[in-house]
Specification:
alpha+beta, Phosphorylase Kinase, domain 1, Aminoglycoside 3'-phosphotransferase, Chain: A, domain 2, 2 domains, six-stranded mixed sheet, 15 helices, about 10% strand, Kinase-like_dom_sf, ethanolamine kinase activity, Choline kinase, choline kinase activity
């Protein structure tokens, strides 16, 4: 997600209840959308439609290098030599010259669960910018449509100035723009001020026109979470059928039972989903875990504080209820992917009522949190977040199973960086527990 600047000719003011009708969240959302359209054309990080410029077809096409990288060998000299060749093929700015491999530093970024991510720099050559190398995970092809993802990134970057520039692709990954920033931590996203910044950034992303990013027709468009569950069930079943998977895990996950429970949940959702409130359909990120949230080291002078937060990694982005995206983020409060047991969620860390209210205030652009009627506004959104919460557990449970394929096939039981099957079990148990809490299951 990129930065937004309000017009200098019209100073911004806090929205009041004369701006926001307390009985409908969608009215607040429409006011936010109108405000976001009026942005400064001078800001390089604004949410805006970029003016169409004449570009050659060569500049408009994404370059591709026919080569593959093995992330396990990133410390080897051959890896760096191959990377420099790739940079020259893709014409990555300032990386196409005669750079010696011994000047290149490749640093692996921990916490990325789908891909292997690296920061690549030349500390002694100050004119060479740091770049980000992303090597796709071996099972990610079953989870993500890479052409769709690249199309989304291109539209967000070129028309909304959201997300990183993609310099080019190779057979199992891509090279991206690097933001001079620090990645948030589990403690950071719990900080009240930072949580408000995240809420404001999410609201800005949710203002993106779905029809511009998603090329499918309105009639064919379905919620991303529903589409993913339907698409991931078959590859997940294939993983559970592998003979090396422990029987207790197969029985614990029980996808036939899951399918029945999911169908019952979706029927229940259709009766409580409020598309004029938190259930309104938006362009959602769907994976705002702390590792996908960056804090810029330098922010343009005069911008509000929340503009220093940048959201990256749009692999799972797509149309979804706003409440789903918020619920998914709240579940990420319970995760610590750098702990001794990164696959286990600590549900006691789920944001309490006050912490959720703090987030909602920023998301809705409402500063007068104690004004009459505001609580009704928050209650409507919070109720929808609760309804859509199990869907997050369901999707990531299937994701964990599919991601586990390589480990299960190799019968890897020790020295795992992340236990995907145990993670899937954790999310599946939470899915069923929440269905019972909502009264969907008895």
């Amino acid at each position: 997600m990129s930065l937004l600047q309000t017009p200098s000719t019209s100073p911004s003011r806090p929205m009041s209840l004369t701006d926001i009708h307390a009985s409908s969240i969608i009215s607040a959302f429409e006011i936010l959308k109108a405000k976001f359209r009026a942005v400064s054309a001078s800001s390089p990080y604004s949410i805006r439609r970029a003016q169409k410029k004449a570009v050659s077809s060569a500049d408009n096409e994404l370059r591709h290098a026919t080569m593959r990288f093995d992330p396990r060998h990133y410390k080897n000299a051959h890896f760096v030599t191959q990377l420099l060749t790739c940079c020259r093929t893709l014409a990555v700015p300032h990386w196409s010259g005669d750079i010696s491999p011994d000047k290149v530093v490749v640093r692996k970024v921990s916490g990325s669960l789908t891909n292997a991510v690296f920061f690549v720099s030349c500390p002694t050559l100050h004119y060479v910018p740091t770049i980000l190398l992303r090597i796709y995970g071996p099972s990610s092809g079953s989870l993500i449509s890479r052409p769709k993802e690249l199309n989304t990134l291109h539209i967000l970057s070129s028309q909304y100035s959201i997300g990183p520039r993609i310099y080019g692709t190779f057979d199992n990954g891509r090279i991206e723009e690097y933001f001079e920033s620090t990645t948030l931590t589990p403690a950071d996203i719990r900080d009240p001020a930072i949580s408000r910044w995240i809420g404001a950034r999410m609201a800005e992303l949710h203002s993106v026109d779905i029809s511009v990013v998603d090329i499918s027709s309105k009639e064919q468009r379905d919620d991303t979470v529903k589409r993913n569950v339907a698409a991931w069930l078959e590859p997940a079943q294939a993983v559970l059928a592998l003979p090396s998977l422990p029987e207790y895990a197969r029985q614990d996950l029980d996808l036939e039972r899951f399918r029945t429970d999911w169908d019952k949940y979706i029927r229940w959702l259709s009766k409580v989903d409020d598309v004029k409130s938190g259930g309104r359909r938006v362009f959602a990120h769907n994976d705002t875990q702390y590792g996908n949230l960056l804090r810029l080291k330098q922010v343009q002078q005069g911008l509000q504080e929340h503009y220093q937060i940048v959201v990256v990694d749009f692999e799972y982005a797509g149309p979804n209820p706003a409440a789903y995206d918020i619920a998914n983020h709240f579940h990420e409060w319970t995760a610590n992917y750098h702990s001794s047991a990164p696959h286990i969620l600590n549900f006691s860390n789920y944001p309490n009522a006050e912490e959720r209210r703090n987030f909602y205030a920023a998301y809705l652009g409402q500063s007068r949190t104690n004004a009459p009627g505001v609580q009704t506004l928050y209650d409507k959104l919070d109720k929808q977040v609760t309804y859509w919460s199990p869907a997050s557990h369901a999707m990531w449970a299937l994701w964990g199973i599919v991601q586990a394929r390589e480990d299960v096939e190799g019968n890897v039981q020790q020295q795992q960086e992340f236990d995907y099957i145990a993670y899937a079990q954790c999310r599946m148990a939470a899915f069923r527990r929440e269905l019972h809490s909502l009264g969907v299951l008895y």
